[in-house]
Design a protein that fits this description.
The chain is an alpha/beta fold. It is built from eleven helices and ten strands. It folds into two domains: about 190 residues, Alpha-Beta Complex (2-enoyl-CoA Hydratase, Chain A, domain 1), CATH 3.90.226; about 45 residues, Lyase 2-enoyl-coa Hydratase, Chain  A, domain 2 (Orthogonal Bundle). About 40% of the residues lie in helices and about 15% in strands. The strands form two sheets. A six-stranded mixed beta sheet has the order 1-2-3-5-7-10, with helices on both faces. Bound molecules: 4-(N,N-dimethylamino)cinnamoyl-COA.
Length: about 260
């Protein structure tokens, strides 16, 4: 399998994905997210794969979504094109996925790791959701998953200040399953994935599905989300035109 932005390999029942845009600290651009979807589709349906390992380089797992790609985007195109929306499908997979994280895991990079079933961190890992410093908010589940894992106070403090935390702090607050020396990250990640791949496939996938139920949202959460999206619709020309057309008793002309 050949991809522009990542390397894909299969080792003893483990599908290994290595994010590979070192020149941009593995920033997640549209091409990388498309490649990630393709390779996950492949591993999800490959009978010989029992567990998936996602990793990056020693300096960065991924330093966020690609700010250079995002800088000139406008609303409502981001909404209409569901910009970066395909990243979410990492969390929908049925086979277990481990994130082996070294270096920076920031913004969308941290969110990608949080979508995996658990994180093994190298001792040089740094985690953070610095979006507030760019005038935006985490867009790939960071507020929800960080608050569920680390609690409301830690999630608020991290996302409102944009500060990063080291691997030891991430382990203390339940974000990572274990911390290992950087030199051992790859072997520990692979060995852990191998152990999972060697278990009953059915039992493994059922356990993943059961633990996944813990994160299912409530009605109140869905209603709040809907309200927020509703408010943002007032940023669109279509809302102005649609409502003015109603008042002026004429058909709306949407762009
Ligand atoms: N995007 C694009 N390029 C990046 C990048 C990024 N996020 N992070 C680093 N790079 C590039 C740098 O521009 C630099 O490229 P050149 O200038 O050499 O061309 C190269 O990688 C090396 O970076 P630095 O020179 O900055 O390296 P340092 O060691 O000095 O600093 C750093 C490392 C990680 C502290 C720094 O690069 C940094 O602060 N990077 C930005 C971190 C950040 O703000 N990340 C959050 C981005 S916002 C969504 C899904 C996801 C998202 C949103 C929506 N949907 C599903 C809707 C996510 C949003 C975000 O992640």
């Amino acid at each position: 399998m050949n991809f522009r932005t990542l390397l894909a390999d299969q080792v003893d029942g483990v599908g290994v994905i290595t994010l590979n845009r070192p020149e941009a600290l593995n920033a997640l651009n549209s091409a990388l997210i498309d490649d990630l979807k393709s390779v996950l589709d492949h591993f999800e349906y490959a009978a010989s794969v029992g567990c998936i390992l996602i990793t990056g380089g020693s300096k960065a797992f991924a330093a966020g979504a690609d700010v250079k790609e995002m800088a000139e985007l406008c609303y409502p195109n981001t909404y209409l094109e569901n910009y970066l929306g395909r990243l979410d499908q990492v969390a929908q997979r049925r086979k277990p996925i481990i994130a082996a994280v070294a270096g920076h895991a920031l913004g969308g990079g941290f969110e990608l790791a949080l979508m995996c079933d658990f994180i093994i961190a190298a001792d040089n890992a740094r985690f953070g959701l610095p979006e507030v410093k760019l005038g935006v908010i985490p867009g790939a589940g960071g507020t929800q998953r960080l608050a569920r894992l680390a609690g409301r106070a830690k999630a608020m403090e991290m996302t409102l200040t944009g500060r990063t935390m080291d691997a030891a702090e991430a382990e203390r607050c339940g974000i990572v399953a274990r911390v290992v020396p950087l030199e051992e990250l790859h072997s520990v990640g692979l060995e852990t994935a191998r152990r999972i791949a060697a278990q009953s496939r059915t039992a493994v996938m059922m356990i993943k599905e059961c633990i996944g139920r813990v994160d299912e949202g409530s009605l109140a959460e869905g209603l709040r989300f809907e309200r927020r999206i509703f408010h943002s619709v007032f940023a669109t020309p279509d809302q102005k035109e649609g409502m003015r057309a109603f008042v002026e008793k004429r058909p709306a002309q949407f762009r």
